[in-house]
Amino acid sequence: MDAERRVRDRRIDDSRLSALLFDPAPVTHLGAALSDLAGRVRSAFGADLALILMADDEQGNTATLGASFADPRDEALFAPMIEPPGGLYGVANQVGLDGESHVWSRLLSDLSADDLTAGTPRIERALHSRLANASGIGLPLATPNTPSIGSVCVFSFDAADPLGAPELERLTAVRRQLSLTVRNNQWRDRNRRARRVLQAVLGSTPNGILVTDTTDRLMICNEALAALVGVDVTGQIGHPMADVNDRIAARMQEPSGYRAAVSALREGRATSERAQLRTLEGTAIAWFSAPISDDEGEVLGRVEIFSDTTHLDAAVNDARRAAAEAARLRLIEERRAREAMGVARAAHVMASARQPDDVLTHLAVHAESVVPCDVAIVLALDRTGAVRVAAVRGINRERAERAVAEADPAMATEVCRGQHPVLSDDVMVERPAAAALLPEFVRSLAVLPILGGPYPTVLLLGARAPRRFTSRELRLLTDLSAHAGLALRDAGQAERDRHVAETLQQALLPDALPSVPGLTTAGLYRASAGALVGGDFYGGWTCPDGGVAVIVGDVSGKGVEASGLTAMVRYAAEGLAYSGCDPAQLMSTLNGLLLARTGPEAFVALTIAIVDLDGRRCRWTTAGLPPALRVDAEGALEVLEDPGPPCGALRDPVYRTTSTPFAPGDLLFISSDGLIEARRDEEPFGEARLHEAVRRAHGRSPRDVARQVYAEVYRWARGSVADDVAIAVMERTDA
């Protein structure tokens, strides 16, 4: 392209430049999206190179760069300079951090050699020659909520076609649109990755999961269900659940039991239901269903979980079948917790995206800036079918809401459900019905449907004087509405996924520790900051001989796999306890199970303690955790030290059962190592501080003891406890 052509092409008007920026692209990873956007900017300015840098955090410590070259040969030549901390990469990053615009008339002389050679051993002759006549402009990017999100830099290598202040001024004119487009690409990328995490979590669980919507149609189904019940319903997405339930019931030995359970759900959708099933092949299944509700309590759907419990039948004998059933149900709940924690972490990321109303507010603001108008109103149908004002510009919200309230409801609903743009030069003559939704001074009207959101939504733009909305303006508004539709769809999906994840998490939280006459118990669990799934746990059960057992553990590793190991250890210990309640014997048996079922890298630090109420003693064994603490009625503290190696770490470890008095008024405190390893700077909290914290809390209820000790550690660590924490507290209360 010759210089005259490039200069002429660069004179495209700002509206065309805005349209290029808002051209929607397929959802992809952030780097590709930024490179696509950089290509549009470079093309719009007829430049040789465009860079768009998106800071991944507000301090700019990490960033994603998109680059576009006019000449493919430049891409290989400049590769070292656009990779961190390459010269041009560093220049773009510094523009974003400084927050100042730049014009480089002669790049090599305006920037120091150190700036351009950072991260590059030397500038080769060909690269130096290409930069000899280079010029460029740089502009920081920002949104109203984030003062610095990155930068855009455009470069020309042609001395006859330099970039300067006029080009910077034109780029500055679309800075807000460009910043929003960059930010939206980041949110779309995060939503894409969050949805993939949710799909991976559902695919990683051995449990079968079904999720239905409010119309009782199948919405989500994982492949594990087919292996579990012997019927594949993944192809029934969108079908009525009555059909899906019939296919599942046909695979059960007693179909009437399953049909009765699902019928009970349809009679009262706000309740939870569970049932014990067995397939035609003899697989024992625990079925559980719970409603999915939003923050206001409105039911959004229902989740059903099918768990294989056949293996528990061999863990107990006929004499203790009833007790084993309770253990099996708790094992099911723990497995659900593992699923829920992974899903909840993903749900939390999705919930951090913009809410639908935030998208609509930005839509009204940017529509007003793209097409000159006097008023912009966004209307949407809510869940009840009523028309509401979602966003407004140009007039106060009360006035817009009053106009909608006084309009014909049927007409307002029809406008919101429109599928095509509507333009009117004189609304009072051509569209008097739609005019009722706008202030009386509006004479010209443009109505744009916003497709892709969870509810019918429409954008209304009004002008005081009669005017004709041009095809160019319509194209700009259509592009903007399409962009808003994509954002609404992503935000709506994230909100629905969050509700599913939160409901699953609430359904799978651990039970309370057992409390019996003469003994008060409490447990506390806190996940580490930023963790997707925690590995510490606590649990408890009543032994056949009348004793009360508690277990506290810390599983090696993190994530869904660690949660699976947590569930196995916690409930295997409880199941094994029905064959004998000796802590050391339980620990040795668990050690053998771990060695047989997991790799050498999987091990668990544990403490098991059993209180004998009649004998007024406490027996315990410890495998890798900090020593348990006993505080007597007078406040004297005893450290219960008799450590053994972590469970699953050695082939033939030696564990010993140790006994200590446990009289009325005595308190037993067991915790994972998250408390003593909490740090302030590089200093750990340590065992000595923990002992003093337990002494200070003595005299309170077990629940308050656990909370007070954790709160003291949390404050000491300045609000950052880097590891998971599990605590169990038992107090003898009878005389």
Task: Write a structural description.
The protein is α+β, with helices and mostly antiparallel strands and 735 residues long. It folds into four domains: 3-191, 2-Layer Sandwich (Beta-Lactamase), CATH 3.30.450; 206-351, Beta-Lactamase, CATH 3.30.450; 356-489, Beta-Lactamase; 519-732, PPM-type phosphatase domain (Phosphatase 2c, domain 1), CATH 3.60.40.10. It has 25 helices and 28 strands. Strands 17, 18, 19, 20, 23 and 24 form a six-stranded mixed β-sheet that branches. Helix 2 (14-21) runs parallel beside helix 21, helix 15 runs antiparallel to helix 22 and helix 22 (559-576) packs across helix 23 (583-597). The longest helix is centred in the middle third of the chain and has 37 residues, at 471-507.
Could you list some keywords that capture this structure?
about 725 residues, alpha+beta, Beta-Lactamase, 4 domains, six-stranded mixed beta sheet, 25 helices, 28 strands, globular
